[in-house]
Structures are given as structure tokens and as C-alpha cells.
From TrEMBL:
<keyword id="KW-0665">Pyrimidine biosynthesis</keyword>
<dbReference type="GO" id="GO:0006207">
    <property type="term" value="P:'de novo' pyrimidine nucleobase biosynthetic process"/>
</dbReference>
<comment type="pathway">
    <text>Pyrimidine metabolism; UMP biosynthesis via de novo pathway; UMP from orotate: step 2/2.</text>
</comment>
<dbReference type="InterPro" id="IPR001754">
    <property type="entry name" value="OMPdeCOase_dom"/>
</dbReference>
<dbReference type="InterPro" id="IPR011060">
    <property type="entry name" value="RibuloseP-bd_barrel"/>
</dbReference>
<keyword id="KW-0456">Lyase</keyword>
<dbReference type="InterPro" id="IPR018089">
    <property type="entry name" value="OMPdecase_AS"/>
</dbReference>
<feature type="active site" description="Proton donor">
    <location>
        <position position="99"/>
    </location>
</feature>
<keyword id="KW-0210">Decarboxylase</keyword>
<dbReference type="GO" id="GO:0004590">
    <property type="term" value="F:orotidine-5'-phosphate decarboxylase activity"/>
</dbReference>
<comment type="similarity">
    <text>Belongs to the OMP decarboxylase family. Type 2 subfamily.</text>
</comment>
<protein>
    <recommendedName>
        <fullName>Orotidine 5'-phosphate decarboxylase</fullName>
        <ecNumber>4.1.1.23</ecNumber>
    </recommendedName>
</protein>
<dbReference type="InterPro" id="IPR011995">
    <property type="entry name" value="OMPdecase_type-2"/>
</dbReference>
<dbReference type="Pfam" id="PF00215">
    <property type="entry name" value="OMPdecase"/>
</dbReference>
<dbReference type="GO" id="GO:0044205">
    <property type="term" value="P:'de novo' UMP biosynthetic process"/>
</dbReference>
<feature type="domain" description="Orotidine 5'-phosphate decarboxylase">
    <location>
        <begin position="20"/>
        <end position="269"/>
    </location>
</feature>
<dbReference type="InterPro" id="IPR013785">
    <property type="entry name" value="Aldolase_TIM"/>
</dbReference>
Amino acid sequence: MNVPRSFGRRLHVAMGERGPFCAGIDPHPGLLTAWGLDDDVAGLERFSRTAVEALGDTVALLKPQSAFFERHGSRGVAVLERVIADAKGTGALVLLDVKRGDIGSTMQAYADAYCDPRSPLCADAVTVSPYLGFGSLRPVLDTARAHGNGVFVLALTSNPEGPEVQHARRPDGRTVAATVLDHVRAANAAVLAGDEPLGSVGVVVGATTGGTGEDLAVGGPLLAPGIGAQGATVDDLATVFGAALPQVVPSASREVLGAGPDPQALRDAARRTIDAVRDLLFRASTRA
Ligand SMILES: O=c1ccn([C@@H]2O[C@H](COP(=O)(O)O)[C@@H](O)[C@H]2O)c(=O)[nH]1
């Protein structure tokens, strides 16, 4: 049987070749209007296909946000299926941002939908929420691994409401987020003991979170949304991630998409962020 190349390895290569950056595909109603499109399925399709064609050969990771497709009903989900297929054909890896989390038996159905290549909604990786208990994610972790796919687990999210749950302390004094980070570290430990350069289980840590005080070295990629529209800058990444900076994949959606619909302007916006991240990495490496 062919063993698929792991998501962590593929992402490591893509980050090296294209630079560490994830472009979000978030077809907000306001962005559709700004691009001269109607807020309907045809507008959704034109918007997202333009974004994939403009950015797919430039960025390491494309991240369609499922909510903006689901709000158009079943025809919107059909557009999402097409976007995933087209994006996979560009050379970028595809992370479906859908933040699923449920009891374990239901998680197997989500795993079948998002992590099994027989499903049209299967991307290279998927976002999940561990707040029904990390163990409930087991079906997604196992199915993703079996097919060489990745999983990003929410740890310290970029929104201001996140800390009331994620900074809460257990009886032993550790935060809930630290527990999530520990579980992800353990999930990656076995593959990193082999020859994998990067684990396939990542975490989401917002670029807006400031100095977290947590150990962010989990062996997998660190997705950092919050750049641009949510107020964080590329330079903030140094404060948030410190020594873990080389594993960070900064992510921005509106910051890039706001430059459209001109494909070259979209590419330029993505390249500006990639250049800024590379510059930050260089400055950090010369200080180390
Ligand atoms: O903690 C999180 C987790 C996910 N997101 C998602 O990322 C994008 C951010 O969009 P911007 O336009 O760059 O603000 C969006 O899809 C969120 O659902 C996040 O922001 N924070």
C-alpha cells in the first residue's frame, strides 16, 4: 500500500518554497459588493475562483472559510467543493476552516466529510475545536493521519472572547490552552521521532494574543490568524511566538482580499505579507 506523504512534510516544503503564509478565502458580503459582485451564488463563485486563480501559485496555504459558502445553502457548498478541487490543483495546500467539534461518534462523520479523500469536501487539512475535550477529536486525528492529511486544533484564538475559556485554570493551575497544547505536542511526538520535519497536527494561535506565556513548541505548524483586519501586524508575531517563530504560518483574509478583484493586486498584497514575514524571520535568526 502507498503511504501518502504527510501534511506536515508537504507544508514544510511549501513554506520553504513559497514562504510562510496562508491566504484566507472569506467571501464576506461586503467584499462581494466591493468587487462589484452580487451577494448570491454566482457572485460567490466568481469571487472565490478569482482568489484561487490569483493566489494559488503564490501562497503555501489557501484557507477557504466554510461559513461564507454555507450561508448560500447547498449551492454555496457545491461552490466550496469546486474551490477545494481547484485550489488543490494550483500547488497550494488547502486548509478548510470549518472548526468542527462534537462528541466522538459524531466526529467520525466529520472525519469522513473533511479528512477522507472520497469526500468532495476533503481538503489537505481542517480546523477543529477541542472544547468538547481533546479526546473527542480522535476520529479526525486518526482519519487525517491515515490519508496523509493535517488537523489544526484551536488553542488560543484571535478573538477577544477566547480567553474566558482558554485562559481558565484547571485545579492543578495549568490553563485550558496549555492542556490543548500538551495534547497536540504528544500527538506529534511519535512522527517527529522518525524523519518527519514537521508534525501534521497544528494549532491555531492568534497573532493578536500578545505574549501568551505558554509553551508553543508543539512539533506542528502554528496557524496565526489576526493579521490585518483584526489589528495584528507581522512584527507582533515575534512577541507572540518567540523561539517558535519558524513554525508559524501567518494568515490573513480581508487584508489580502480587500486588494481585489484585480488578480495582480491580490498577488501583490499576498507577496507584501510574505516578504514582511521573511524579513522578520531573518531579523530573528540574526538576533538568535
Ligand atoms: O482564532 C481564529 C481562528 C480562525 N480565524 C479565521 O481566520 C479568518 C480571519 O479573517 P481576517 O479577515 O484575516 O480577519 C476568518 O476566516 C476566521 O474565521 C480567526 O480569525 N481566528
